[in-house]
Design brief:
The complex is a heterodimer of chains A (about 350) and B (about 240). Chain A is α/β, with parallel strands linked by helices and about 350 residues long. Chain A contains eleven helices and ten strands. In chain B, strands 3-2-1-4-5 form a five-stranded mixed sheet, with helices on both faces. A five-stranded mixed sheet of chain B has the order 8-7-6-9-10. The radius of gyration of chain B is 18 Å and the shape is globular. Classes of the chains: A alpha/beta (about 350), B alpha/beta (about 240).
Chain lengths: ~350, ~240
């Protein structure tokens, strides 16, 4: 007898950057296990993720992570109904480890394969965090390499409101943190420093703020902050890192918040969700919450674990994608530059 | 015994199914698609050609380096997952050594070279003695031009094999009188050789740990080498004997 869809067990794998992760979901929303092995300490001394080292760690970690995931979930391999895997965007060598393992698992189990877009996965982390969440809603995606506003009209229907033209918000965070001598990963350090600084101390630019423009650009802001730091150093001034962090973060946040609520209004949505690694930024989360209360919009964001790169969100996206027939064949390849598009 | 063998260490994608001492099917090609795209479809195909169901397999053998870092990981990730799901042993064999299985000729030095970028190769040399393959000189990284010149100093016939021969030597470098290159159809790695070499370990009851097997890279990542150059005081210096 065929299983009911709520009973389907999805094994999901994520290896797009510096986290090796495997998860088992029952149905679309119940996480039975979500194991994440992070490499952050390994990359710290290099000041950023080294792709070759990340790939070398993934090939060592992949089987223990899958094995621990199945044991934690209390599920046997033969009970798995489908295999979902991140195929992009990300570091190609890192993605390939997960993709190759997932294809081989699916083939060996004789079960279908589902290639998942990592960024869609971040949006779907919100379904795991909020069991009653249903489309339609607006999603603000802010991750290391991507910034985008997506109108989620259905589980398999997305409309791109706009995305980044150049640097993503996360890239600007990392670069500025590095120049200020903060250890990797820089995002959380800037977030923490910003709490001690004055956000109005330095007037950094905000780009593309005209109404109805949902594209993002952070390269100008990044340059402005770097120029400011350089000129302060030239003058022999001691850097007020807290003020720089707070003022920079304010510029990023105001642009994101402004555009997000404009998009909510234009699309006539009553819910805004935050998605992606930068969703863990407490300043951004607090500002969005404040604005949402003011405007009577429901605001959701996943807890910290579901904001980081994790396989549970890939399993969730994979589950809903498969309901719509979104399977992959064994020719599935990694696509490092995969982006979000209309669906 | 029924083994599936995989070699994705070079541009060649090769998979084979073999029973004990017999090649049942093999698919070896050097095409335009990547290993990532073709490996699993080829595994499916080669099993079908041999009329073997994956559930009948009793072992997996993978060509485990040296070679292309990414290629090796694609092959090993697939091999590990398959071994794990099917509950059968996995063994990794040397890509260089498997190539020497192409030419079981006594009295000749077999010099196996795999591209190591920037004019270098991973090289190991072998001799067949009493029907067994012996390592004559252990694996190292060296300049291709130096390897070829060194072969000219040897007092025996030398045959060069490997992707470095196809890419950088055959028809491109003048060879010393005692040195020749393997024929084009024998110069690249093949999963049939990997299968036969791996069977010996499987028959001896030997297997690798599917949980922690790593490719044999020989080289560290460039980032690590650079970092240690810049931080000599923190680099871990191995104790000298």
């Amino acid at each position: 007898m065929e299983k009911k869809k709520e009973e389907l067990l999805t094994l999901a794998i994520e290896s797009s950057c510096d986290e090796t992760s495997a998860a088992v979901l029952r149905g679309g929303r119940e996480i039975l296990a979500n194991i994440i092995s992070t490499q952050i300490p390994i990359h710290q001394k290099f000041g950023g993720v080294v792709p070759e080292i990340a790939s070398r760690k993934h090939i060592v970690n992949i089987m223990p992570v899958i094995d621990e995931c199945l044991r934690t979930a209390g599920v046997e391999l033969k009970d798995i109904d489908q295999v979902a895997v991140t195929y992009g965007p990300g570091l190609v060598g890192a993605l390939l480890v997960g993709v190759s393992a997932a294809k081989s698992l699916a083939f060996s189990l004789g079960k279908p394969l589902i290639g998942v877009n990592h960024l869609e996965g971040h949006i779907f982390a919100n379904f795991l965090a909020a069991p009653d969440l249903e489309p339609p809603f607006m999603a603000l995606v802010v991750s290391g390499g991507h910034t985008a506003l997506v109108d989620v009209q259905g589980y398999n229907r997305f409309r791109m409101m706009g995305q980044t033209r150049d640097d993503a918000a996360g890239e600007a965070f990392d670069k500025i943190a590095r120049v200020m001598g903060l250890p990797y990963p820089g995002g959380p350090r800037i977030d923490a420093l910003a709490k001690e600084g004055n956000p109005l101390a330095i007037d950094f630019p905000q780009a593309l703020t005209e109404k109805g423009n949902y594209e993002f650009s952070f390269s100008g802001l990044k340059s402005a902050v770097l120029n400011y730091i350089n000129s302060e150093k030239m003058k022999g001034h001691e850097l007020n890192k807290a003020d720089i962090a707070a003022s920079f973060q304010r510029s990023v946040i105001e642009v994101l918040v402004g555009k997000a609520f404009q998009a909510v209004k234009e699309a006539g949505r009553d819910t805004l969700v935050l998605a992606g690694g930068v969703a863990a930024n407490s300043g951004l989360e607090a500002r969005l919450r404040e604005e949402a209360e003011k405007q009577g919009v429901r605001f959701l964001y996943p807890d910290k674990i579901l904001c980081t790169d994790n396989a549970a969100m890939i399993g969730c996206r994979g589950y809903y994608q498969a309901l719509d027939g979104g399977y992959s064949d064994l020719y599935l390849n990694a696509v490092p530059g995969l982006s979000l598009t209309d669906k | 015994m029924l083994v599936l063998a995989i070699d994705t260490a070079t541009q060649v994608s090769s998979v084979a199914v073999a029973s004990e001492g017999r090649l049942l099917s093999e698919l070896t090609m050097q095409g335009k698609l990547t290993h990532s795209e073709t490996l699993l479809p080829h595994i499916e195909q080669v099993l079908k050609m041999a009329a073997v169901d994956k559930s009948q397999l009793t072992g997996i053998v993978v060509s485990n380096g040296p070679g292309s870092f990414t290629g090796l990981r694609i092959g090993l990730a697939a091999a590990k997952a398959m071994s794990y799901v099917l509950g059968i042993p996995l063994v990794g064999v040397s890509t260089l050594q498997a190539m020497a299985y192409q030419l079981p000729v006594p009295g000749v030095r077999l010099m196996c070279l795999l591209d190591a970028q920037k004019g270098n190769a991973y090289v190991e040399s072998y001799r067949w003695e009493n029907n067994t393959l012996q390592v004559a000189e252990a694996v190292k990284v060296a300049k291709i031009s130096d390897i070829v010149a060194g072969c000219g100093q040897l007092a025996e016939q030398v045959i060069l094999l490997g992707d470095a021969v196809q890419k950088k030597i055959a028809g491109k470098i003048e060879l010393p009188a005692n040195v020749s290159t393997a024929m084009p159809h024998l110069v690249m790695p093949r999963a049939a050789c990997v299968a036969m070499l791996g069977q010996q370990r499987l028959l001896a009851g030997d297997a690798d740990n599917v949980m922690d097997l790593e490719p044999v890279y020989i080289r560290r990542s460039e980032a690590e080498v650079l970092w240690e150059k810049r931080h000599p005081e923190e680099a871990s210096v191995p104790p000298r004997p």
